[in-house]
Amino acid sequence: MWGLQPSAIFAGQMTKPLALRPAGPTELVAVRFEPDGARDWLGFSVDRATDRRLDMTDRLAGLTAPAGDPEGQVAAFVAWLETQKAKQGWSLDPVVRAAVEASTDDRPSPDRPPSEQRALQRRFADRVGVSPRMLRSIFRFRRVFDHAAHPGQAADGWLEAGLEAGYFDQPQMARDFRRFLGCTATEWAREQQALAKAIASETYKPAGFHPA
């Protein structure tokens, strides 16, 4: 069942596919938070937004941005966030921040007693929206696309990219494709090629040649 999205939304961490389709021409302006950076702005635990899109229309009621100017809109949004941060004294959890940085850099996690690990999981749920282990899985999956030369490469290219990203073998990477995108690497690449062709057919209209 499909429904119209609000004009302003907050996107939480995604651990499964989310289907979206346009209802017409769309102008999109987005600002990305660090994984642990949105907690104070939201005002509640980030795990409430995991795998969801929350209506932020009322939350952004005080924001004014120039219509039809994406760069100006981003600048206005960032300035508004900086003002909110200064007024409300936003801060980061240093323990969670250190764990997020380790995950970002693909550094091993330190060994922790079970009680400390459970406490970290609770703090991650509040600040990040997913567990430390899930965040590492998300980062590893993203690195596949960083290592891949281009989306249309052969299957052995995808395997090489997966190994460089930290996967042990192709079945392990295939499971994450299914989990996060709901398709195989080959199916995803085919869809990207079809999308690129569709965009090119609509945006690249060479003018007719008229000899002098």
Strand content: under 5%
Distance between the termini: 56 Å
Choose one word for the global shape.
globular
The proportion of residues forming helix, as a percent range, comes to 40-55%
Return residue spans where pLDDT drops below 50 for at least 5 consecutive residues: 203-212
Largest sheet: 2 strands, antiparallel
Structural class call reads mainly alpha
Total count of helical runs of at least 4 residues: 8
How do the SSEs run, as a string of H and E? EHEHHHHHHH
Question: What is the typical, i.e. mean, pLDDT?
Answer: 83
In angstroms, what is the radius of gyration? Answer: 21 Å
**Biggest sheet: strand arrangement:** 1-2
Organism: Brevundimonas kwangchunensis
Pfam families: HTH_18
Protein name: HTH araC/xylS-type domain-containing protein
Describe the structure.
The protein has 212 residues and is mainly alpha-helical. Among the domains are: 9-88, no CATH class; 148-203, no CATH class. It is built from eight helices and two strands, in the order βαβααααααα. The chain is globular.
What's the SSE blueprint?
Layout: E1 9-11, H1 39-42, E2 53-55, H2 70-88, H3 94-104, H4 114-127, H5 132-147, H6 155-165, H7 170-181, H8 185-203
Antiparallel strand pairs: 1-2
